[in-house]
């Protein structure tokens, strides 16, 4: 290894070490994707809410549900509060009907979502619409609960730009307004024009709670000033002694199986270790292969002159019209074939010899006898014509092809 090569490798290693250091020490960007997953500690995760519920209600009373509600509610022992929180909770008509039937039996349904399923709204005589304040570019809502016992002197301010949705039409005979909101108009302590976003409705023997601002239950909002008290008071409407079934099926950040390579590439340290390994292998192949590999010269194999020699000798015999010599050579070549392939002695061509050759070659005894009779006639004659020579060649090739 030359000094120049060592310096080059050292510079490359130092360069990669600096890149890895800069990458690993760089502050990671905040992930603002709304996963609403109980495992995520990012702003729009629900890690704080989930663990707060486990502490306040008891871990044994919080049950994770990973299957669709339509499938889960087939179990008659499934009783308590079904808790949904996500950007959207897309119940179809059959699933919504099964949920409502389950609530009728005396259970509780809680749904926090930016939009409610049409099948649910139609049954409950509700309508929603997006709310915009064209005179205000800031879409940061201010929340307040309707119950005076649960109200805070100053309203709860969500320091996030979000899209707001309101219940613009409700059945006042069946529906109770639980919470209201307004967009920030400069005063974050009061609601100048309250809009409904949180309602309660009795349904059969149970109750349904619909909340149009799931952002209020996220990690960011619960850790912002005193907003955790809003969540605490909002969840007081849920029955205290019932099991809460936490839905993990309708989640943007639902856990799915990932390949090992995906996990590697999504971890900063594993990703750079993987890249460094690949780069190191490539460098080793390039430099080590260049240092040791040499061009292998092409050596032409010796040409086989046997065929040329045979053609020359055969041409000489043909020119002299010496068919008898050619026939003898052909017979000797055939005998050599019998001796090498069948291990028979061609010196004594008696009946036992014919039977052995017939058995090993797969030809009949009659064919074998005729062939050797023809050969013996040629060997005993003094003159061989061209027709006999061709006939001999034909018979031998046909006999060998059967073998």
TrEMBL record:
In Swiss-Prot or TrEMBL terms, this protein is called DUF4350 domain-containing protein
Whose protein is this, by species? Dokdonia sinensis
Q: Keywords in alphabetical order, please.
A: Membrane, Transmembrane, Transmembrane helix
Give start and end of each DUF4350 domain: 40-233
Q: Cross-referenced InterPro entries, in alphabetical order? A: DUF4350 (IPR025646)
Transmembrane residue ranges? 269-287
**Could you name the domain of life of the organism this protein comes from?**
Bacteria
């Amino acid at each position: 290894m030359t000094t120049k090569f060592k310096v080059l490798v050292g510079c490359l290693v130092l360069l990669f070490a600096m890149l890895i250091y800069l990458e690993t020490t760089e502050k990671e960007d905040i992930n603002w994707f709304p996963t609403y997953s109980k495992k995520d500690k990012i702003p729009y995760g629900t890690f704080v809410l989930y663990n707060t519920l486990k502490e306040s209600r008891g871990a044994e009373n919080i049950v994770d549900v990973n299957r669709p509600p339509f499938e889960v509610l087939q179990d008659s022992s499934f009783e308590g509060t079904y808790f949904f929180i996500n950007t959207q909770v897309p119940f179809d008509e059959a699933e919504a009907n099964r949920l409502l039937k389950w609530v009728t039996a005396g259970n509780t349904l809680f749904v926090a979502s930016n939009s409610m399923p049409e099948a649910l709204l139609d049954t409950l005589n509700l309508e929603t619409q997006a709310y915009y304040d064209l005179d205000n570019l800031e879409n940061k809502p201010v929340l307040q609960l309707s119950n005076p016992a649960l109200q805070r002197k100053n309203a709860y301010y969500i320091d996030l730009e979000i899209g707001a949705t309101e219940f613009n039409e409700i059945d006042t005979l069946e529906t109770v307004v639980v919470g209201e909101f307004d967009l920030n108009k400069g005063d974050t302590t009061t609601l100048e024009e309250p809009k409904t976003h949180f309602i309660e409705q009795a349904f059969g023997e149970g109750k349904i709670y619909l909340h149009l601002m799931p952002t209020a239950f996220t990690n960011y909002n619960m850790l912002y000033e005193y907003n955790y008290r809003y969540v605490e008071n909002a969840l007081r409407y849920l029955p205290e002694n019932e099991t809460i079934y936490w839905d993990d099926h309708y989640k943007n950040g639902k856990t799915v199986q990932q390949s090992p390579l995906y996990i590697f590439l999504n971890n900063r340290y594993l990703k750079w270790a993987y890249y460094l390994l690949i780069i190191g292998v490539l460098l080793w192949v390039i430099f080590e292969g260049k240092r040791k590999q040499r061009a292998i010269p092409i050596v032409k194999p010796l040409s086989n002159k046997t065929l040329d020699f045979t053609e020359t000798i055969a041409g000489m015999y043909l020119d002299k019209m010496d068919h008898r010599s050619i026939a003898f050579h052909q017979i000797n070549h055939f005998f050599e074939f019998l001796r090498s392939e069948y291990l028979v002695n061609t010196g004594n061509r008696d009946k036992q010899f014919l039977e052995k050759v017939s058995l090993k070659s797969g030809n009949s005894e009659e064919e074998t006898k005729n062939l050797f009779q023809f050969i013996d006639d040629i060997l005993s004659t003094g003159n061989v014509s061209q027709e006999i020579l061709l006939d001999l060649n034909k018979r031998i090739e046909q006999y060998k092809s059967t073998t």
